[in-house]
Amino acid sequence: MVGAIKFDGVKKSFTTLEGETVIALGGVDLEIEKGSFVCLIGPSGCGKSTMLRLLAGLDTPTEGAVYLGDKKVTRPDHDRGLVFQDPNLFPWLNIYDNISFGLKVRKLFKERKNDVNEFIELVGLKGFEKSFPHQLSGGMCQRASLARALIGHPEALLLDEPLGALDAFTRMNMQDELLRIKKEKEMTMIMVTHDVDEAVYLADKIVVMTPRPAKIEKVIDVHLSQPRDRNNPEFIRLRSEILKILDFAGKERDIEYNI
Amino acid sequence: MKKINALLPLISAAAAVAVAFGVPDSSLHQKSAHPYFAYLVIIVTVIYYAGALIGNAVNKKKKKKADNPLFYRALFLAGVILFFNILNILTVKTALLPVLYFPALDRVFGTLVEDRELIGKCIAFSMQLLFKGVFGGLIIGFFMGIAVGFSKTAAYWINPIIRILGPIPSTAWIPILLVVFAKASSASAFIIGISVWFPTVVLTSSGISNVKNSYFEVSSTLGAKNIHKIFKIGVPAAMPSIFLGLFNGICGSFVALMTAEMIGAKYGIGWYVNWQKEMMAYSNVYAGLIVIAALFYLIITILFKIRDRVLGWQKGVIKW
Asked: A117 burial class (0-12, 13-18, 19+ CB within 10 angstroms)?
């Protein structure tokens, strides 16, 4: 099925400069339905970013395979959009050119020119087309980078702590926008986050991960309807459940792998 | 205070002209055909006032804010004219400075007018040589830099060559080049090319290897192929560094040009200065130096204008 994601026995290890083998991800099986919002949560070194990079095709698994629909992921491509914590806008292009970058390299710019304005409006950046990234705030840059990833109509949008560097207000604002965009564009979203609240607020499915060995500890389905109330008793119960799992794992957390 | 400031160039220019016409020349100096120095002072002063006032009017009409207040450079110009006035007094008026090495200003500026045909020919010759050398060195340096920046194999083979050959001063090649190249002008262009090539290749490749890896990763998730990664990400991201290399290269090429014109050149502005020095015609030497300064100033100004346009996206770039 288009947009569904499957991790099939995925293992990832790499060798450090000192010749030690580090396991970044130790055997992961996970199926994600099309059109769902999945949050990967866990402490540093639990392999959540590694999972995202494997799905993006930026790294290849040592064992097993990742599938998008029925296609095996072998390399990065436009069917999986990626947004990092740092907006990573190209500083030499203005906002308009940044957002249309994907269309231009795929030679689709001429026929889909109108899309650019549509997506600029979608993320609320109308009037800033000619601005350069350094002239905009962090939140605005992150919106632009979201539009840049969305404009290619990816089947899945991968978000690596995209809201981590934003202040609390902008952050809550952006969370609502992500939900709005997901509803409007009907795509699968997978987000890595450190923030338990954020995960419970956004996700249909929360994947709780623990380090050493990096693995999935528990997959929690969230059955709350949208929009969610942060004071709902079920919301609070889920939050403490996740915190309990993470706290248990946190006791033996002492090394941070920089993955 | 400001009003007086605005009048200062006029006062200074009037003083200079008065000295030029009013004080008799020392008999030790050769007579000049025309009072070129006085003419120049008058022309510069008129141009300055006309330029300032017209510029001000245009800015007002376009409602554009000027970079500097009106008559910002007035004090500076007055100072420069005063300096030349004093120089004029020390040379042609009193002959206090050695006559041979410090010719009359009239004769220095006169050379630019009277010898204009030869000087023009020399400028054309030098520019042609400079263009050939810079263009060749730049193209080769740029593509070699890209290859080294992107390909490990290219870096493995080319990097040692750059490290060994690059630091050799380009003029040290002269003995070999004279054997290798049949034409002296090709050898000259090669010297200039080498002096541009080295900084360009080093700063292009280092610029590319310093590009944030996440730019490449993001671009590949947007559907970019390798060719896009090189020319749409790598090159523009490394552009500040590439321009630095080009700037260093161009400055180096000026030195190389002057040296290159010493090997078998028939014309060229560097050749002109050298030749006039051997003839002990110091007024022509100074005229040649003025031409060199003006020419290189122009080239660097154009380069910076291009840079401002290409690198407008950068924060806080240095203005020229």
From this structure: middle
